Amino acid sequence: MGAGHDHHHAAVSNAAHRHSGRLWAAFALLSVLMLVEAGTALRTGSLALLSDAGHMFTDVLGIGMALAAIAATRRAGTYPQRTFGLYRLEVLAALANAVLLSGVAVYVLVEAVRRFGNPPEVLAGPVLVVAILGLLANLAAFTLLRSGAQESINLRGAYLEVLADLLGSLGVIGAALLIAVTDWWWADPLVAVAIGTFILPRTWRLGRAALRILVQAAPEHLQVTAVHDRLAAVPGVAGVHDLHVWTLTSGMEVASAHLTMAPGAEVGAVLAAARAALNEDFHIEHATLQIEPGANPGACGAVEW
């Protein structure tokens, strides 16, 4: 692997590894509360609590993916046949998360619509107690992840998921209180619909992003034509072809290209300038650049960064 790949390993190691203990604590805490919420939702008939348990599942999976990324960097080089490590496991987990959570959200929305005609009674007491425990668990996880969110993109994603789930817990608490005080059973399906409609668009965005990575499409924030034009503008480059830009895993873009040398150009200078252009203008740190001689027969080779 090249220096860019090693740099990515170091970034994950230096930031996320320092916070792995906090990640494990948040993972364990939210996993337990997720199971408690799901079990209580089935026992009390609360759709709002079930939808919140589904949302909490995204927190658990997000933290799990961050832990998996840490484990992948620790085991880098253990399997020489896996030349790109285990980065795609994070993407596959994200896709599985999107599919599973979409199913939960659709079920909640359909069931909520069905219940609007004749809302069943919901045991507000147990729902309220478990929702408050869920809120406290999210607050604890929020505190555990806050410092690491400034240093690692994986931790930042998990942190934002927990932050969003706080709103869901507050919604369930509000519904439980309203039912306990007024016996207004419609509060439960209404909150369930609110949480479900909040989850679905974010879930679909996650699934779409995972699919883009798996089909090796160019990152949405990068224009391939702009990358082509920038490489073509490097002094000593006469032409650019076979340009490919894709995402290996979240936050790690990869590129490969063939560069045709201009007459009299020096290989080392061209490669250094092309590397700097990709890194500084597009934050692509891992690139394979092949030099083709063009009118300069002595300049041919492939260099990876």
UniProtKB/TrEMBL annotation:
Keywords: Ion transport, Membrane, Transmembrane, Transmembrane helix, Transport. Residues 23-215 form the Cation efflux protein transmembrane domain. Residues 220-293 form the Cation efflux protein cytoplasmic domain. Signal peptide: none annotated. The chain crosses the membrane at residues 23-42, 54-73, 85-110, 122-145, 157-179, 185-204. Its main location: membrane. It is a multi-pass membrane protein. It is found in: Membrane. Pfam families: Cation_efflux, ZT_dimer. InterPro entries: Cation_efflux, Cation_efflux_CTD, Cation_efflux_CTD_sf, Cation_efflux_TM, Cation_efflux_TMD_sf, CDF/SLC30A. GO terms for molecular function: zinc ion transmembrane transporter activity. It comes from the Bacteria. One of its GO terms (cellular component) is plasma membrane. Belongs to the cation diffusion facilitator (CDF) transporter (TC 2.A.4) family. SLC30A subfamily. This is Cation transporter.
